[in-house]
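User: Assemble these into one structure.

Assistant: Restating your components, then the assembled model:
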Amino acid sequence: MKITLKVWRQKDNKSKGAFKTYQHDHVSPDMSFLEMIDVLNEELTRKGEEPIAFDHDCREGICGMCSLYINGRPHGPLQTTTCQLHMRSFTDGEVITVEPWRANAFPVVKDLVVDRTAFDRIQQAGGYVNVNTGGVPDANVIPIPKKVADEAFDAATCIGCGACVAACKNASAMLFVSAKISQFALLPQGKVESKERAEKMVAQMDAEGFGSCTNTYACEAECPKGIKVTNIARMNREYLTAMLSSYQVETKGGGD
Amino acid sequence: MKWFLDLFSSSLGRKVLMALTGIFLILFLAVHLAGNLQLLKDDAGKSFNIYADFMGHNPLIQLISKGNFAFILLHAIWGIMLTIKNRKARGPERVCGYQQKLNLASRNMGILGTLILIFLVIHLKDFYGQAHFGSLSTQVYDGKTVTDLYTQVAYWFKVEWYVILYVVCMGALAFHLWHGFTSAFQTLGLNHMKYNPVIKFVGKVFAVVVPIAFAIIPVFMYLGITI
């Protein structure tokens, strides 16, 4: 296969980027999209040019690092991660445009690499459960309907790749945040802290400068893990009830 | 009070405000339509004028009407603010190529809303404004003198561009409702597998039937059809 690549090149966060066109004549239909860029980078290195910087890690569709718009779609034409997208999804001679995620909260670091630590900070704000360490508890001692546990696990499959933000016209992170809130809110261990979790995570999401949800559901259509927008409704519910009720206690809980 | 301000300044809270005001305005549309359909009655405007007089003088209705104006303003101003904030969140660079082939309505709520707002200004100036602050003629029904709003409406609904403007703006309203009705429930977190099909069905029917019924009034009056 022969393809033409239009790739976003940007030196660093300060400089302005632009598209650069590359002719790529050694593409196998069985290559993954990232392997295709690897081969191109080898070529660029041999020629003494700066290789294209892009994010990747596991290359098996579970780490969520490979953040790219391919022809304007997050992770390209299929509902997968970029590493699981193969060149057979493209036609011979096609012109393919590759860009980094576009969102204020995801500043470009270099070329196709963006800084997604905003997601980490949202997680750190409340995306966890406080548990006592100690003896290992017996399995299946916590009563929970199987269906509910499955729903929590479905939400937990979110890999935090940021495709929802990239797909959204408002660069809203609500699908991500709602998946993280849901995976705990549905489980007995997570319910205990669900109120402060919703408050803190939403506050951090806003502080990072993500947009609001206008319910276009573009995120759901592009999510490589098939996270459902029902999670967003659950987050709205969690957040509203948290803000309107909170814990009905007088003390601050500071320990003194 | 801090929590209250935090709630309504958060991205979720702002949306909640849009949803709550939106639902109120949906209810208002239904009431407004029921009253307006009397324009099509073949009684030279008697029942419409009596109804308009009641709406204009009943203290409870007047109170709700003030609230309605406030909600329209809130819905519009908040909507514009949200749209600006959302544009900013996207950043300066545009993504090339692919355009999502999703529901046109949901992607263009701001533009549709602006069209409706422009319509509202014209609509309020010619009808609400005239009825309350203008110098319209009066009619006497069964010994009671009421403002003759019907003649004012009938005059404008004979003007071609006015009728076309009405029909076009009702189209915008239909698209706005097509997305807005169900979207409001999602935003409020009222999403449940048992009720979703009902909300969706009622939302879609409302979005089609109500704007069409509104648009029929000027068209019929232009053509001189009464029921």
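The first strand of chain A starts at residue 3 and ends at 9.
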